[in-house]
Amino acid sequence: MKTALFLLFCLALPCFSQNLSSSKEVDAVYPAAHALYIDLHQSPELSSHEIQTASKLATRLRSLGYEVTEGVGGTGVVAILKNGAGPTVMLRTELDALPVEEKTGLPYASKVHAKDDAGLDVSVMHACGHDLHMAALVGTAEIMAHSKTTWHGTLMLIGQPAEETISGAKRMIEDGLFTRFPKPAVGVALHVGNILPAGQVGITPGIYNTNADSLRITIYGKGGHGAAPNSTIDPIVIAARTILALQTIVSREVTPGEMAVVTVGYIRAGTKNNIIPDHAELGLTVRTYKADVRRQVLAAIARITNAESLAGGAPHEPLIEHLESTDSVYNDPALAQRLRAPLEASLGKDNVITTEPKPPSEDYAYFVEQGVPSLYMNLGGADPQKFAESKNGGAMLPSNHSPYFAPDVDPALHTGIQAEVAVLRNLLNGVPQ
Ligand SMILES: [Zn+2]
Ligand SMILES: [Zn+2]
């Protein structure tokens, strides 16, 4: 209720007209933020292992006067700055990097290797840009700490671990993020990517990205000699038919125009040419925007998988396991509309773009589900010239998670800080609760 009143109050009043962020004040904190970016980029850590990363963030925020708690939901960091009466507003960054070998050729490219959770040696890279998000958050934290006359309320900064494994947000909540600390009236986050040129931010009112569901399907057969298939029930053949039939869900069952993706990302079965195995395993990712389409697609997967096993004479029903899943992030439309004004005033009207929902998913949705209306922004990361060339038939720019992903740090980092300060000041500008 408080939240609703807060939003209503601010929509009715010109809360946004004062204390905009300026490029000049970002200039003052930029060298330190950039140095932190380079340091983080060169020392990435895998999901749930962000020990040094969290410690660096905590140390910087503590030195700026924030009350910092570490170890929230694993390696999570919560930093609070109280500044009189007013709402609590949360700004979130992720902490983790990916098992990717960097091939950008940058002088500060990561050379880090680590053991993954399966014990394998993997290269590690900030291939999703979370290093830039952290550097932006610390730059923003510094400006906010040094300009306390421009806002009031409680600023809550969080460093969330394990975003890439869709587990960190949930674990922070389970560890008391919104009970041990003040529950925010509003949440803000951003993500850098090549969908916009550096210097711009994108706002997507309503659904921001997809629901994501990961499934593991085990199809059972009866093993035996490869030369005597008549004495076996071949799970590879059943799996092959299942994979093809699953592809009819999007093409034949979902309403044309509705967003749905069914991908079988791996199939594992067998050990040797002349042995028919007794089971086959499929790994699926399913992406949708709408809840009813999600239910429809998941039900169709179960129906088709069961029916193909039945048709193949399988000795047991297949096992369908729902592993990681997350809901789509929902951008509060009123909040998106309200925050466009300070962003346009700070960055220039032409640099605030309305963006379409996009397929990658992420676990920020858990915070929204806890009743924290939010704005999750896109931050342009593409070199503006290369971006223009790619739009005119030139080379496609690498996506997040690519070994070649390399945001155009200056101005992307600069713009990220400026956008965050503009939004936070607007949200923290004089609405006592
Ligand atoms: Zn990612
Ligand atoms: Zn990411």
What keyword list fits this structure?
single chain, 433 residues, alpha+beta, 18 strands, 36% helix, binds zinc ion
Topology of this structure?
Blueprint: H1 2-12, H2 23-42, H3 51-63, E1 67-72, E2 76-83, E3 88-94, E4 113-115, E5 121-123, H4 130-145, E6 153-160, H5 168-174, E7 186-197, E8 201-203, E9 206-207, E10 211-220, E11 224-225, H6 235-253, E12 260-269, E13 275-276, E14 279-288, H7 291-311, E15 319-326, E16 330-331, H8 333-347, E17 352-354, H9 365-369, E18 374-382, H10 384-391, H11 409-427
Parallel strand pairs: 3-6, 3-7, 7-18, 8-17
Antiparallel strand pairs: 1-2, 2-6, 4-5, 8-18, 9-16, 10-14, 10-15, 11-13, 12-14
Helix pairs in contact: 2-4, 2-11, 4-11, 6-7, 8-11
Structural features, described:
By secondary structure, the protein is α+β, with helices and mostly antiparallel strands. Helices cover 36% and strands 25% of the residues. The protein contains 11 helices and 18 strands. The protein has helices spanning 2-12, 23-42, 51-63, 130-145, 168-174, 235-253, 291-311, 333-347, 365-369, 384-391, 409-427, and strands at residues 67-72, 76-83, 88-94, 113-115, 121-123, 153-160, 186-197, 201-203, 206-207, 211-220, 224-225, 260-269, 275-276, 279-288, 319-326, 330-331, 352-354, 374-382. The protein has an 8-stranded mixed β-sheet, with helices on both faces. The chain has a 4-stranded antiparallel β-sheet with strand order 12-14-10-15, covered by helices on one side. Strands 4-5 form a two-stranded antiparallel sheet. Helix 2 crosses helix 4 (130-145), helix 4 (130-145) packs across helix 11 and helix 8 crosses helix 11 (409-427). The radius of gyration is 24 Å and the shape is elongated. The chain starts with a helix and ends in a 6-residue tail after the last helix. Residues 8-18 have low confidence and may be disordered. The structure holds zinc ion (ZN) (2 copies). Residues 128, 164, 400-401 line the site of one zinc ion.
